[in-house]
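User: My instructor asked us to take a sequence, write out its structure as tokens, and then describe one feature of it. I'm not sure where to start. Here is the sequence I was given:
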Amino acid sequence: MSKNTILVVDDAPNIVDLVATVLGFHGFHVVTATSLGRARRALAEHDPDLLVVDVMLPDGDGYTLCQEVRAARPDTGIVFLTARDAPGDRIAGLTYGGDDYITKPFEMDELVARVRAVLRRLRPSTEEHGPPARRVLRVDDVELDQDLFEARRAGEPVRLSRTEYELLLHLMDNAGRVLSREQIIDHVWSADYGGSSNIVDTYIGYLRRKLNALGPNVIHTHRGFGYTMRDRGEQA
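Assistant: Let's start with the prediction itself. The structure tokens for your sequence are:
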């Protein structure tokens, strides 16, 4: 099996060298860039599976790079690694399409665990016997094509980030069942996730806005318990 390629983008050479060395030690193929321009060239040349990217770059910012990657390479993982630790910065990073957000100073073991968790979501195991059967999930007028990684509501496409897709998939796979924040984190972010459970509320909000733009609410909050997705005709 080929190694996953990680692109590390940071304008601090000591951070780049440290992250590249540790990720390389853990079996990843690592390429590096110290600016937005060099990151773009590395993307074109190496087609990485995941980016570890700083927000602040000398010729731009990581948010811009994230937007570009999400538009052209929706299946590429993005982990922000930055000194910007305000709650608004974290929310901005996830809003722009980041899969995870780690603040400096950081533990290398945590970074490796987060990178592996994102890659597991992006590259699920294919060691089963034969290819998985194609399924299209439906709840009310929402459809999720797992083979094409496409969501639709009332026949209209709904553009989702990878994390939003995984969240919607988990909700639809458990339609009518109340899922706690912890259950959602374990499935969507994995048990390695060490951040706040509020990330679930944030992504539920993103998902609701996109779905509710095309129809009534189908994702329901059960205060003190969690969330469920169900047909509009079903009782709570």
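For the description part of your assignment, you could build on this observation: DSSP finds eight helices and 13 strands in the chain. Try explaining in your own words what that tells you about the chain.
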